[in-house]
Design a protein that fits this description.
By secondary structure, the protein is an alpha/beta fold. The protein has twelve helices and 18 strands.
Length: 383
């Protein structure tokens, strides 16, 4: 902020008290003929200060200060480019949103779609499912917030090349124009038409596999984003029969907060990954865990929780039934430490089928969590 600009904008009392247009003619002559009499300047400043203490600042000065502060520090929505379906910003993030890490878990029924914003506004979209009931798509929701035009979507991560994870991928690529797309290196998917062939290829590779045990071991890849660390683990094509076990298990970390997104990994895949010491380490680091395969028993392995003790577990799914029998859910409430919600309740597991959209804001180790079902002012559904 430049002093000259502030002085003109605020009209501070320096001008009105004779430092430039003074009423003392003798000092005015000194100023015109010899330059500024600095002793007089100092005396005048002290005099002004004493009057301000007694009388308060001139009328309008505080309002001008507030106006300038808003101008210098944009409102959070302008700074981030996202309004997140009319959710209000948490109090601790009202001044500078860039100090907070944010996660938005969208309600895409039996699918996944999560937006993560770093504290420097680096945007990461994990999976591209969509809501078949409401027709809501993440490509439309983020495009309305300026992504792909005014705002940059830095990364798209596809944890698993299945319909419920990639249904909206073509629109995401076209409308949001992500800079980087992260997928299993052996199952690179360009469009939905390739989906069936990609999964068939993985199955055929397993049946025909003659690779050595060493070639079929779990693999790891790491990248450093602006302020986040990306760590991904995957099994090579041909190592497992079930293509769900080829999920790209993703860990994202920033400022001591780590989220784990395992896609549709099943028990067999978990067992293979647990042989990796680095994988065990990142499970221990995890604070927020997304239940594998939408919380179903097929994605659950009790041994995982010998290393994993998250603060919260999130499940993205809709209610599934077979005839009159509700699909069995894994006992995730036994493995989470729990968090206090914005409404004061205490929760260990959150689900999109029960809670709707979920918002998590993390700053200095503190979490603020709210859901669309919790917010009485949130009406009209996702936009």
């Amino acid at each position: 902020m430049h002093d000259v600009h502030v002085g003109k904008r605020f009209k501070f009392p320096l001008v009105r008290h004779g430092l430039v247009e003074g009423t003392d003619t003798s000092h005015q002559k000194q100023l015109n003929d010899k330059g500024v009499d600095f002793l007089h300047v100092i005396h005048a400043i002290l005099e002004i200060g004493s009057k301000l203490v007694e009388q308060g600042p001139p009328i309008g000065t505080l309002a001008a200060l507030r106006e300038e502060r808003v101008r210098q520090i944009p409102v959070p929505e302008q700074n981030s480019g996202i309004q997140f379906q009319d959710w209000g910003m948490p109090e601790r993030c009202q001044v500078l949103i860039s100090e907070c890490m944010q996660l938005r878990i969208f309600d895409v029924e039996h699918g996944d779609s999560i937006l993560i914003l770093s504290n420097k506004n680096e945007a990461v979209l994990v999976d591209c499912g969509w809501n078949h009931t409401t027709g809501w798509r993440v490509s439309d929701g983020l495009a309305k917030q300026g992504f792909g035009i005014r705002r940059k979507l830095h990364h798209v991560i596809i944890t698993h090349p299945d319909q419920d994870h990639v249904a909206d991928l073509p629109n995401v690529l076209e409308k949001l124009k992500p800079v980087h797309v992260w997928q299993h290196p052996q199952l690179y998917l360009k469009n939905i038409s390739e989906l069936k062939a990609t999964l068939s290829q993985a199955q055929s590779a397993y049946l025909a596999s003659r690779k050595s045990t060493a070639e079929l071991q779990p693999r790891e890849a790491s990248r450093q984003f602006r302020t986040m660390e990306l760590h991904q683990f995957y099994l090579p094509v041909g190592s497992v029969r079930d293509v769900n076990d080829l999920s790209l298990v993703t860990f994202l970390k920033e400022d001591g907060f780590t989220v784990c997104l395992p896609g549709d990994l099943n028990a067999r895949g978990w067992r293979l990954h647990l042989q990796n010491k680095a994988f065990q380490y990142w499970l221990r680091e995890t604070n927020l865990f997304f239940a594998s395969h939408h919380g179903r028993m097929s994605g659950y392995l009790d041994k995982v929780f010998e290393y994993l003790s998250p603060k919260l577990i999130a499940i993205s799914d809709k209610e599934q039934t077979k005839g009159r029998t509700v699909t069995q859910r894994a006992p995730y409430t036994d493995h989470s430490r729990g968090v206090k919600m914005k409404d004061g309740s205490f929760r260990r597991v959150l689900t999109t089928r029960g809670d709707g959209r979920i918002k998590i804001v993390v700053k200095d180790g503190n979490w603020e969590i709210s859901t669309s079902r919790m917010e009485s002012t949130n009406k009209g559904g996702q936009r």
